[in-house]
Amino acid sequence: MLKTHDLTKRYGNFLALDHANIEVAQGECCGVLGPNGAGKSTLFRLLMGFLRPTDGTALIGGKDCQKEKLAVHGLVSYLPGDVRLFDEMRGKQVLEFFADVHVRGNRERSYATAKRLDLDISRRVGYMSTGMRQKLGLSIALATDAPMLIMDEPTTSLDPNVRREVIQMISEAHKSGRTVVICSHVLSEIEDICDRAIIMRQGHVVHDQSLPELARRHLVTFDLSQPLPRVPDEIRDHIRSARQVEHTVRLETEGELREVMAWVTQLPSCDLKVNRMGLREVYDQYHAPVSEHAA
Amino acid sequence: MNLAMLRQVWRESRLLMLGVAVVLFIFCWIRVWIVGRVDMSRFQGILEILRPEFENFSAVSFEQALTYPGRVAFTFTEPMVILMVVVWGIARGSDAVSGPLGRGTMEMMLSQPVSRFQYLLSKNLITVIGSVVIAMSAYAGLVCGIEFTTVKRESPPVKMQIPLVKIEVEIPFIQNPNAPKRMPLSDFVDKEDFFPSALNMVGLGLFFGGFTTLMSAWDQYRWRTIAIAAGFLIMQLLLRVMSLSVEELHWLKYATIFTLYEPEVLVSYAVHTPGGAWSFWFPKSQEEWKLGGMAYLTFLSGGGLAGFASATWIFCRRDLPAPV
């Protein structure tokens, strides 16, 4: 459904996106992660044809994002990172306009989505709070029956209840077969709804993680007063990495845990902890806070 | 053409368009009514003294300026009228690209299946229609003024015929009580003579609309687009004044678009040189050829349309920055 090939965007000497090669299959939900300035929004803006790439191509549904913008926009429902709408119009008028202007828009669906998000659409946009404007943007994007959803931080400025509702709605869209590409700083949201997570850093795609695969990974930590013995061959396939720093041993496992635990419990270990690997651990491999790097 | 898009642009601009149209309608009507109230013959002596200064700053002759058509024609050169037309052009032009970019509404709009060309075409179409509506509204005000204004008429003196010699002699201090005191202005002014001037005003609106849209197409901030357009307007007006007032700087008239906005000249053509106001190029005398009313309209609106076309070319190719 989405495919980029060496997609690059350069502003003078600044490289905002560097040869990004991303593929998202039809019906997949893909999260894009990275700190501010990693190139996520630049990627989305290139996909929407707002920016012209310095190099490379991007295709959505087989259509070129630069040369066939109109066809691409017909396939996509997009929510920008900073939703700004017409201040002088009422929420209802805004919904009606966007439902009319998009070939896959529908007024009734827009009203229903706004109602589900508990949005007062009789109010003028100029008098709406940031959260209300975000809800209005979401009502437009989620009500459009396009086969692909691209959302840049959809839960920004929302209270926890609405945030949960939005995640639920995106999840429903995904389950109905729509392709979703979502960018968020809230890792738990990505873990909840996505099949994959792409991690970006300084314009590069540095990691592509399958989340069901990640769910089968664990971090086993224990104290061992002797050097860690050689890992037996039978369980070697289940251990991705083993590190010992002074007395602390960290084993990163994959798949079946029982055999690994059987070996660990034979060792004179103490203070044994087993944690499921989360997106946070993967993310921190590339973007650990400065304080942790220093440590 | 996307109708929803067109309706949206109309919704954004209708208040300004109607406001400017109503103001100009009323202003032009009142201005013509004032022409009917002021008896210029009483000021003729004073004006004669100012003739050299007047002729320095005017594109029409002194005699033409004192006639009713001449005085009504100056309605379209009033600063208020020029300001209103230019305000429309600059306001709509600056709202074409840099306005929505600055407000941040462009991103959501262009993420819909609406091409940039369609988007700008809707904006430009409303700007063009607005320029026509505003100029026609001013013309309608002028026509109402002409139709409903009366002017004071000098009563013909009462004459008496001396018997035998059959010579008529005016009797001083006596007026004919049956002679009408006021007459309709339409008896002295033909409203059709002002239509080429109204078209000239359409051209001015289109020019400023096109120019400002062009500035807007490569800019990101509306305030800067407006500042550039306003600076251009002031510079053009200064060049016009300098080209008229200083003989050595007469060549500056080729550097200002206000040389192409001369509604009073077009009225003068319509009155004295029938056909001149509706032609592109006509002989004023045996040696002198002049630009006709159609040339004024063509050059101004051509400049405006070139601005719209260039703006579309730039807008369809540029990067759209993220909202600030």
How would you portray this structure in words?
The complex is a heterodimer of chains A (295) and B (324). Helices cover 35% and strands 30% of the residues of chain A. Chain A is built from 12 helices and 15 strands. Chain A has helices at 40-47, 69-75, 91-101, 107-116, 130-143, 160-175, 187-193, 211-214, 233-236, 258-266, 279-287, 290-294, and strands at residues 2-11, 14-20, 23-24, 29-33, 55-60, 63-64, 76-79, 148-152, 179-183, 196-201, 204-210, 217-224, 239-245, 248-254, 269-276. A 6-stranded mixed β-sheet of chain A has the order 7-8-9-4-10-11, sandwiched between helices. In chain A, helix 3 packs parallel to helix 5 (130-143) and helix 4 (107-116) packs across helix 5 (130-143). The longest helix of chain A has 16 residues, at 160-175. In chain A, 39% of the residues are buried. Chain B is built from 13 helices and 6 strands. In chain B, strands 1-4 form a two-stranded antiparallel ribbon. Chain B has a two-stranded antiparallel ribbon with strand order 2-3. The two termini of chain B are 30 Å apart. The chains are: A alpha/beta (295), B mainly alpha (324). The A-B interface holds A 41, 45, 48-52, 69-70, 73-74, 76, 78, 80-89, 97-98, 100-103, 137, 140 and B 2, 4-5, 7-8, 11-12, 103-105, 107-108, 110-116, 317, 319-320, 322-323.
Radius of gyration of chain B: 24 Å
Distance from first to last alpha carbon of chain B: 30 Å
Average predicted confidence as pLDDT of chain A: 88
- What ranges of chain A have pLDDT less than 50 throughout 5 or more consecutive residues? none
Per CATH, the class of the largest domain in chain A reads Alpha Beta
Percentage of residues in helical conformation of chain A? 25-40%
Strands in their spatial order, largest beta sheet of chain B: 1-4
Tally of contiguous helical segments of chain B:
13
Overall pLDDT metric of chain B = 88
- Class per helix and strand makeup of chain B: mainly alpha
What profile does the largest beta sheet of chain B have? 2 strands, antiparallel
Order of helices and strands of chain A: EEEEHEEHEHHHEHEHEEHEHEEHEHH
- Look at the helices and sheets of chain A and give the structural class: alpha/beta
- Main sheet: strand order of chain A: 7-8-9-4-10-11
- In CATH terms, what is the fold-level topology of the largest domain in chain A? Rossmann fold
Give the radius of gyration of chain A. 23 Å
- Overall number of domains of chain A: 2
**What general outline of chain B do the C-alpha atoms trace?**
elongated
